[in-house]
Amino acid sequence: MSSGYGMNGGPSRCFPFWQEVLACYVINSNEEDSSGKKKCAPMLEDYYECLHHKKEAARVQALQAAYRKAEAEGGYKANPPTAGQIRNLGILGKEEDSRAVLGSK
């Protein structure tokens, strides 16, 4: 909520974004001229994304559709990586797991 208080009494998850939007409006606009509000569009977009997660949901749907399409075409690996191998990606000393998952030599 824009009040700054979440369900459990602490600051809400989107309150920092709201503060950025408010600070931008205060800095870039005044009573006579509100054309500076256009500069605040990216911050407002971030705030709305925090509230509604529309971009995140669209990306998840696109990834799921691509996965289902690849699975239907048989494009998935016959020997998929284990969860442990995936967790070890990029960790020093676990290069063999990274090579197995990524298919590089």
From TrEMBL:
GO terms for cellular component: mitochondrial inner membrane; mitochondrial intermembrane space. Its main location: mitochondrion. It comes from the Eukaryota. GO terms for biological process: mitochondrial respiratory chain complex I assembly. The keyword Transmembrane does not apply. It is found in: Mitochondrion inner membrane; Mitochondrion intermembrane space. Accessory subunit of the mitochondrial membrane respiratory chain NADH dehydrogenase (Complex I), that is believed not to be involved in catalysis. Complex I functions in the transfer of electrons from NADH to the respiratory chain. The immediate electron acceptor for the enzyme is believed to be ubiquinone. This is NADH dehydrogenase [ubiquinone] iron-sulfur protein 5. The lineage of its organism: Eukaryota, Fungi, Dikarya, Ascomycota, Pezizomycotina.
